[in-house]
Amino acid sequence: MKKQLLFVDDESKILDGLRRMLRPMRDEWDMSFAGGGKEALELMEKDHFDVIISDMRMPGMDGAELLEKVREGHPDVVRIVLSGHSEMEAVVKTLGSVHQYLSKPCEATKLKEVISRALLLRNILANGQLMKTITKMTSMPSLPQLYVDLNKELKCTEVNMNRVSKIVENDVGMTAKILQLVNSSFFGFPTRITNPGQAVRLLGIDTIKTMVLSVHIFTEFDKESGDFQFQPVWQHSMEVAAMAKKIAASEKASTQIIESAFIAGMLHDCGKMILASNLPKQYNKILKAQETKHIPIQEAEKSVLGSTHADVGAYLLGLWGMSDSVLESVAYHHNPSDAPTLSFQPLTCVHAANYFSNELMHKEKGIDNTVNLDLDYLVSLGLSDHLEDWRNICMETISEGVKA
Questions:
Q1: Percent above pLDDT 70 for the chain
Q2: Which superfamily, per CATH, for 230-400?
């Protein structure tokens, strides 16, 4: 079945150009074109669309208003901005409604790549209602104390950039959202930014203030969201991030792999936070099934939702334009042998770090570990004899401790 795309722009010449540019894709995509927001919404009431690509500056209803209406009324539709010059504040205000930003002029290959990737991501989640819930999301929840600390710091007369950077790079949700913005084509940086502290400095305090104090793009985790405990998952995520980074460094990997291993480790369990904050009742059921049946959490998730936290995390991060290496690490951190790329990469480091973090934590508590090590995968990479060194690295990381 062909995928349904809707392009929206008030300039007819732009729409004509898109028709010509994407003509080679007409066997795969059914494409509709609207001259404004009102016309776009009327088309969406008649037909279902998988992706909407809209200009920002349009008379009457601008792109920001249109895409927010789409988010509310058609939550399963992927929302992409394709626009010319826009003010920073205007872009920041659309952070909740937009998954990705593309700048005009946009090369055909880039546009096809972004749309194709978004469409491919839709195959990850088997549950249609779950897809609507995740696609509609504007942000990931933050650790309550870090959320409070960031708000407090940004309200100071003289904001300390180093403190802001430290808070952001210690929070899963903030890091994901900051990287989504800084890596958009709106900024056009020549290389992908993977360091959240660097991303904060590049965006600047004024932009961060707008995100936090005006647009309220960050949210703290609801402490009333069922039985899920946010703090242990945050602790584990930061441990895995530190471990994965050190494992990559011990293998003398490139700077890009080392930094991506840290981000991937930090985000590998973000799907748990997403599910627990959006579907607390169902996630309580999952947690109880895991406890009573003594099965891995991903098996319990699969039985209840048809998808796992790894699927959910990879889906949302993919919509936000995260790199392929991070997506593979999140999607396959339990089963790296299934990944499309068979080589030493951030996934390798995250898989090992996740295993050792769980092994050492469960050993300390005297209970069985439900996270397995994919030894066949490591043997195929010729790395099985590195495990003892990696375990020692992880033990040292735990002894150093991770604190908010």
A1: 96
A2: Hypothetical protein af1432 (1.10.3210.10)
